[in-house]
């Protein structure tokens, strides 16, 4: 696969996962805390937390791949600003 296509795809995946993290994070934050397993929102909050946790793993993975795909750009800039020596 061409690198520019791979970069576009991983950026779209990362954006979708970020929106998922935002929605599940804000919802888990706003829903009432406590109440115990008998309360109506308890299961919903636990479900949101599970989606948030799995999303965190997938989002971290996509950011790792994103950085790898931009490796050349990152190295060029580290050299430009004297943080990496030319070989
Ligand atoms: C984008 C906006 C985000 C918001 C508003 C948000 C909000 C929250 C909130 C409110 C909690 C506490 C949930 C609870 O215990 O009820 C939480 C937990 C957590 N967040 Fe986020 N979060 C965001 C993004 C992220 C991202 C990008 C990551 C990692 C890639 C992340 C990883 C985690 C993890 C690992 C936990 C602990 C999960 C648990 O133990 O239940 N969050 N977040």
Topology:
Blueprint: H1 3-30, H2 40-69, H3 71-80
Helix pairs in contact: 1-2
The chain binds protoporphyrin IX containing FE.
Shape: elongated
Uncertain stretches of 5 or more adjacent residues: none
Give a list of the ligands: protoporphyrin IX containing FE
Structural Rg: 19 Å
Nearest-integer average pLDDT = 94
The topology string of helices and strands comes to: HHH
The number of strands is 0
Strand content: under 5%
Termini Cα gap: 29 Å
Explain what the structure shows.
The chain has 87 residues and is an all-alpha fold. The chain has one domain (3-80). 78% of the residues lie in helices and 0% in strands. It is built from 3 helices and no strands. The chain has helices spanning 3-30, 40-69, 71-80. It is elongated and about 65 Å long. The two termini are 29 Å apart. The model has no long low-confidence stretch (mean pLDDT 94). The structure holds protoporphyrin IX containing FE. The site of protoporphyrin IX containing FE has 12 residues, from helix 1 and helix 2.
Give a quick rundown of the structure:
Helix content is 78%, strand content 0%. By secondary structure, it is an all-alpha fold.
């Amino acid at each position: 696969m061409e690198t520019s296509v791979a970069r576009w795809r991983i950026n779209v995946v990362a954006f979708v996962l970020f929106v998922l993290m935002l929605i599940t994070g804000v919802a888990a934050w706003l829903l009432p805390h406590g109440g115990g397993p008998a309360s109506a929102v308890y299961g919903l909050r636990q479900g949101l937390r599970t989606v948030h946790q799995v999303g965190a793993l997938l989002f971290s993975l996509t950011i790792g791949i994103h950085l790898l795909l931009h490796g050349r750009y990152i190295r060029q800039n580290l050299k430009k600003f004297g943080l990496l020596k030319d070989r």
